[in-house]
Amino acid sequence: QRLKTTANITQSFDWIRSSIVFTLPHTDIDTQYQTGTTWTQEIVDLLLHNGDAKACMRAPTVQRIPFLEIQAPPPIPSGLELLGSMKPPRVIKTHLPIQLVPEGFWKNKCKVIYVARNAKDNLVSYYHFDRMNLTQPEPGPWDEYIHKFMRGKLSWGSWYDHVKGYWQEREKRNILYLFFEDLKEDPRREVERIMRYMDLSVSDDVIDKIVQLTSFKVMKDNPMANYTFLPKAVFDHSISAFMRKGEVGDWTNHFTPAQSQMFDEDYARQMADVDIPFRTSI
User: Is residue 231 part of a domain?
Assistant: First the structure.
């Protein structure tokens, strides 16, 4: 049974803007939903702790790296409440579109890491996430869900506007724009990119250790990262695991040829004004 009181996203925007002042040093991980957010959080936390796995097991991901805009049902603390109890340097997670990111992030030149994933795999992953996340509305039939995605009628709005917004501002705002597919293809290369962007320096051995600790297999079994710590009334892992597959190209197991053609035609229309190098296979 789904919770009657769902996580309140849109009503928290004004509260976020008025309640917190961001000062250096901060690292902000901005993503569209289901793009490798938790993966990137673990990479960043391990880099900050020089690959110390024990230090990164100190608490669940959601407590180590608060989710900025979430106001969850009590007794779960809000993202801002968690942030208020932490001392810098702080790492923050958000799914906010760029136009809703608090101005303090930019004024204080916080490090902003954005992670994007190709639309088809993102859609599949979010569909299964909505099935098991009982704080979200029932996703409904797969075919209807595709249309909701194309119309931007899911939490945090349009995928198209989200990825384009950060892409178009990446140079002006000094945003590190990452792709899920690149992380899968060569995780060591991407961990090194994140390290350099954060002005950190760790040894090659530590890089290798971080790559191993943040592999899908290891993270899927990590109780501090796989969200099994949440009660079944929030995340029902018997419906679908939070860390389900972590693959590139799983969309081919869900889209019919007709659905794929329809989606591709709509995608071409909505993305005609940008050239973001997404890949649907590697």
Answer: yes
So which residues are the catalytic ones?
95
pTM over 0.90: no
Query: Token pair for residue 155?
Result: 């939490």
CA distance 146 to 254: 11
**Contacts by residues 145-150 (CB-CB < 8 Å, ≥ 24 positions apart):** 146/255, 146/259, 146/262, 146/263, 149/119, 149/123, 150/263, 150/266, 150/270
User: Which CATH number is 126's domain given?
Assistant: 3.40.50.300
Owner of token pair 């994007």: 116
The verdict on residue 281 lying in a domain is: no
- ω into 223 cis (within 30 of 0): no
pLDDT digits (tens, 9 = 90+) for 9-46: 444 455 444 444 444 456 666 666 767 898 999 999 99
Q: Which two tokens stand for residue 201?
A: 């320096």
**Contacts (Cβ under 8 Å, ≥6 apart) of 81:** none
> To 5 degrees, how large is the angle CA 195–CA 197–CA 198?
65
**Alpha carbon distance 98, 104 (integer Å):** 13
- Which is nearest to 246 in space by CA: 132, 121, 146, 156? 121
Number of H helices, E strands in the chain: 13, 4
Report how many domains make up the chain: 1
Q: ∠ at Cα 242 (118, 149), nearest 5°? A: 40
Domain limits for position 111: 10-270
Say if 3 falls within a structural domain.
Answer: no
